[in-house]
Every structure is written in structure tokens, then in C-alpha cells.
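Morning, I've got a small favour to ask if you have a moment. Here's the protein in full, and shout if anything looks odd to you:
***
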Amino acid sequence: GKDIEIAFDELLIGTGKTPNTAGLGLEKAGVVLSNGGAIKVNAYYQTNAPHIYAVGDAADLPKRLETTAGKEGSFAALNVITGVNKSKLDYALVPSVVFTDPAVADVGLLDEEVPAHGLRCMCGTVYLNKLPKSRVIKDPRGAIKMVAEEKSGRIAGIHILAPHAEELINAAMYIVRARMTIDDVIDSLTVFPTMSEAIKLAALSFRTDIDRISCCI
């Protein structure tokens, strides 16, 4: 080999997850695995062997999180006990975070994913230097992007780059899950000054010039 020296300011290590499925004897049961060793399942966590279900990091699922693993286990148990595959997780409603500085968090659909659902998309992006709280904490880094259906105004996704985005995304999740519209968010009162006001500012950006509004509208 050859040694290579590279200078940089910061390093992001994304190690991913390796399913711990080796040695389980799944091949004897005919269970199909992905190329990475994850157990292939359908939307209801059932493998190609009808009597075997798999969840969590071992399964080939859209999101591998501690929170999703617990919920998947509950749903899989219901499907097994009832004998009917009807319980499943909507992964579009599951928030996720990358704990960088500032953090990156998202929930719901990306703008390019909306047309696949037969809908037209409109997007609004607000930079956090517009937020009073960012000036208070002297950290204006980041932005928030809101994705909404053009016709109904229903909020389909919220994506955040901000200090403590991991806290903001929980409120965003409730908005997307409750199928709130842009105007629902605009008509809601928030505490001033807070970082979570960024969500309301993103909604307001669809209706008005946020550079010309009161701080407490």
C-alpha cells in the first residue's frame, strides 16, 4: 500500500449499520437476504417464509432507528397474533437527524417526491438569519425548507439545517402527521423568541414577504 496524507478541517464518519444475521441459519429456512445481509421483508415485516418476520437493524427496511425498531416489533407481533397483515409503519412520517453542527433533520416528502404521489409541489425556504432567536444566540447558520401540496396547501415535508434541529423536527413531525396546511401553521401562535418560530416563518414565506412583517405576527 501507499500512505497518503490529506489535510482538512473537519471529518464526517458515516459508518452505517451491518445486519447481524450471519450464523442464524436463515438459509436453512429459505429466508432471502439482501446483498448487505439484511433480511428481505414486505411492508408488514414478513419474510418470503410466511411464518418468519423480521424487524429492526436486521431487516431490509427504509429507516434503521431505535424508534422504528420498537414500533416495527409491535406491528409485526400484531400481524402474527391476528394472522392478518394490516399493521405497518409509514416511514414518511418518521423524523430523522444527522447530529452534525449544525444538525440536519427532516420529516415527510422531498419536493422531488411529491409528483410521484400525483400532486404538484410548492416549496418555501427561509434562512435562519431572518429568525430573531438566531440573533439572540448569535448563531444565524442554517435554513428551513417547507414542502407543500400546491392545491390544498397541506404540508408534506419539512427539512431543517439548524442548531438543535433535532429538537425542532419533533414539532415538524406533528405538523406533517396531522396533515396541517400552511394556513393552519400561520394561524397558530408561537412563543417569541424561539427557534421553533422558524417553522411558522417558512409557512409565512408562502403568503408574504417575511422581511416586511412584525416579529410577532
Notes: The longest strand covers residues 155-162. The radius of gyration is 21 Å. DSSP finds five helices and five strands in the chain.
